[in-house]
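Encode chain A's predicted structure.
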Amino acid sequence: MRKYLAIISLAIIATMVSCKKEFKFSTSSALNITLSSDTITFDTVFTSIGSSTRTLMIYNKTDENLKINSIRLGQGSSSPYSINVDGRSGTAFSDMEVYADDSLYVFIKVTIDPTDGNNPFFVEDRLIFNTNGNESVVHLTAFGQNAKYIIGDKRFNDYYKYKVIADSLAEVHWTADTTYVVYGVALINSYGTLVVEPGTHVHFHNGSGLWSWSEGQLIVNGTRENPVVFQGDRLEAFYRDEPGQWDRIWLMEARENHGHSISHAIIRNGFIGVQLERFLKDNLAPAFIENTIIENHTGMGIYANCYSLGASNFVVANCGNVGVYLTGGGSYLFRHGTVANFWNNSARNTPTLYFSNIYNDPNDGNAYAYPFEFEMDNSIMYGSLENEFLTEFYSAPDLDTTYVFNNCLLRTKRRHEDIFKSCKFNEDPKLTSYHSFDYHLDTLSPAIGLGDPFYTSGNLQFDLDGVDRCNTPDAGAYQYIYVPQERQ
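Encoded structure for chain A:
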């Protein structure tokens, strides 16, 4: 009897094995998995050692079974992230099966101590999938420090992700007791106002920026002791002087009596420092930039298009393209500025100062010419090129175009024109250290005493450091201070 039962059992097992369906997996590179997202953001603000989990779905929307050859974290075992795929935990997996019209769950976990000041603001990694030679990537981002994070949650023309930070008729204040970190575009809406208080630090992630929409308003109220700082979000020493880490401060046309103003700010390491642009409507209020340093940008320091701008006690330095780019006409008054360009990160063939009255209208695609007016007084405009000044004007009998330089030190081949009044040409201003971003005057600088007291009045009596210019102003943003040497 037992022998009979054993024979029956073996027969049943053999039948089951022979009837088991053989699953075949396609190796065609034309077939790939579909992921529920290409970015996973852990947007919980941690207040202690934080741990958070997000879910990612893997879909096989094809009619064939697929085998995911590898799933791995880019940083491997050193990643702050860990993953769980189909109930298995780790940082890397291979040959994960997902059948036709089926799916898999991936649980992603991150653990961070947000009180650790050595952490970057964003802790990032990549989750990489390889299926039949096709690579798919999910970007992982989490907060690394306690800060106020501005995360873009809407899209503009499928390009910018933005977050409205000051809506219409609202006045929002950013203060020094909070560090602000922008991921995407921080947007000031029409009729909204953002006021940035003294000592505030604003950090931008790669490609991120601050944008004031048409008839919005930005007011930066730094002080000499507590300037406002705009820079990238990478805190490692390697990135301290690395340009191009973020996009720009973009200021569109202002409404009457609500012009943009930037005072006592440091704006560095981006693509464009400040972009002022008439875009949708006429600009009804001038912008002012004073006591501000704009430096180390891969594109331009100041870009103004059909605008009215006053700038004083300012530095624009070390830009990969043009230091100051004024186009589309407009009205500009610059006093006690230092525009110095010794960019050495790549080849630079463009001058550091460029003027044009040609306006390319984004609405109809046509080019127009507008009146252009510019005056620069008691300033330095110098760089590594033989000619750092270029103009491109459309001429017409009724089109007013004027520009003049008073008591300036300039590097240009156009020195014999009557637009230059009491200027010096092509003499090295002998700034303290171009490559250390120190634009104070050295002992033998030809800019010493070059200024005219006529252009130094009111708040320009004192330089960017607060030094009294008295009645013998130097050209540039800084007044030279004579320090007598002790006798040996």
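The mean pLDDT is 91.
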